[in-house]
């Protein structure tokens, strides 16, 4: 099938374009948010993805469009392709994010539509978003396996947070100082330097994906302090690397991390204690890391993810 989608989330899109379809991503001259084009820091399969400027999209045939943001649905798709999603071209809307606001107000932007399929990336999202009568499906994440790279040679914890200062309490940035008393932290991600204190929280330069995985795997533990996200892909990548996990037990985390793979809790003191113990015990850390990788490969493997998407694209494209 020929699939149009915007390159919005690097890790998710990287997994998605590993399928057996033909993918088109819009590109604009400055590679801004609405036209990032082909990834520059992620490894995408050669020859399977084409990037086209907006003015070329009207001439192109598409079997299905995959939408990920409200303005793609409401404006961008029709403005750039001349086709109304769900009416003139089959459409899927992927919801990556957990809903915001009061529980009674968590109505999804595509609620009560009969012309498209809403796909959630976690069961937590599906539970909390109110989609009304819109058809929904859950396709859990799939990860391009980076391989078992864990060495744990550095007695430090790795943390991955993009835009840590701006996202603040959402990403648990405010908790890093407390956790740094239990173990030294290396913070990876865009804008990490803006929140690193130097007193137990050290910023690591923003790295391309392959280098990031290598550096993460040198740290003894992966710390996931995120309060409110559907499920951070960096957590699943850390598990694939073979890293033991210490994580806040929020949103979908307790589904993803089995007890043998690390420690999941909503108590900061419990997590700090686990962080301290695992950093000081390389043998236990390695054992839990092996369990984490086994669990991640079983549930979040790329083959299952792509198979699930093949079914959905076939269903929507032939509707």
Task: Report on the architecture of this protein.
By secondary structure, the protein is α/β, with parallel strands linked by helices. It folds into two domains: 2-142 and 302-317, Glycogen Phosphorylase B (Rossmann fold, 3-Layer(aba) Sandwich), CATH 3.40.50.2000; 154-299, Rossmann fold (3-Layer(aba) Sandwich). The protein is built from twelve helices and 13 strands. The protein has helices at residues 10-16, 54-57, 70-81, 123-128, 164-167, 176-180, 209-218, 233-241, 253-256, 268-280, 282-299, 302-317; strands at residues 2-5, 22-26, 49-52, 64-67, 91-95, 117-120, 135-138, 154-160, 185-188, 201-203, 219-224, 245-248, 262-265. The chain has a seven-stranded parallel β-sheet. A six-stranded parallel β-sheet has the order 10-9-8-11-12-13, with helices on both faces. Helix 8 packs across helix 11 (282-299). The longest helix has 18 residues, at 282-299. The relative contact order is 0.13.
Spatial shape: globular
The neighbouring-strand order within the major sheet is 3-2-1-4-5-6-7
What share of residues is helical? 25-40%
Fold-level CATH name of the largest domain = Rossmann fold
Q: Biggest β-sheet: count, sense, barrel?
A: 7 strands, parallel
Return the domain count. 2
Q: Proportion of β residues?
A: 15-25%
End-to-end CA span: 14 Å
From the alpha-carbon coordinates, what is the Rg to the nearest angstrom? 20 Å
